[in-house]
Amino acid sequence: MKFVKAKLNNLPEGAWETFNKFLDESKMTLSKLSEDSGVTQKTLSNIKNHEEDFLKIEKKTLIKICLGLRLKSYFIFSLLKKAGMELNDCDIKDLQLMELLLYADDHIQNTPNEELIDTPIEKARRYIEENKLQISL
């Protein structure tokens, strides 16, 4: 628990800065992230380079990018909170997003350099379909 708390405490305060820290630390190219997240390379470039574009993205898009980056759920929840997109535990779709993110911790966390049969976004979509969740990515 101390490790997680220390990692979260060392993140920048702002959502855009935190996003860019995660992106830089991943060492992923925008092309690879686009493939793994299902978000276009143009969108990724815009939100990486322009805070105003980052602030306009939808919650679902940010979650797709986080899955592509293979972030642990506690980092995703922190980033969503900083971006003003906290998941609401009284909303069925948000609860299902939480379930998906917790599932991803154990099933989508291979490293970007590993050979993948499915991309992280494909694995997430299959989980959604198999479990008949009322969300889409």
Amount of beta strand: under 5%
Helix/strand order: HHHHHHHHH
- The proportion of residues forming helix, as a percent range, comes to 55-70%
The description of the largest β-sheet is: none
Average pLDDT score: 91
Radius of gyration: 14 Å
Low-confidence runs? none
* Class per helix and strand makeup: mainly alpha
- Shape, principal axes of CA atoms: globular
Number of H/I helices? 9
End-to-end span in angstroms? 30 Å
How many beta-strand runs? 0
Task: Briefly characterize the structure.
With 137 residues, the chain is mainly alpha-helical.
How would you describe this protein?
It contains nine helices and no strands. The protein has helices spanning 2-9, 15-26, 30-37, 41-49, 51-54, 59-69, 73-82, 92-107, 120-130. The longest helix is centred in the last third of the chain and has 16 residues, at 92-107. It is 65% helix and 0% strand. The chain is globular. The protein is mainly alpha-helical.
Q: Topology, please?
A:
Blueprint (H helix, E strand, L loop, with lengths): L1 H8 L5 H12 L3 H8 L3 H9 L1 H4 L4 H11 L3 H10 L9 H16 L12 H11 L7
Helix pairs in contact: 3-6
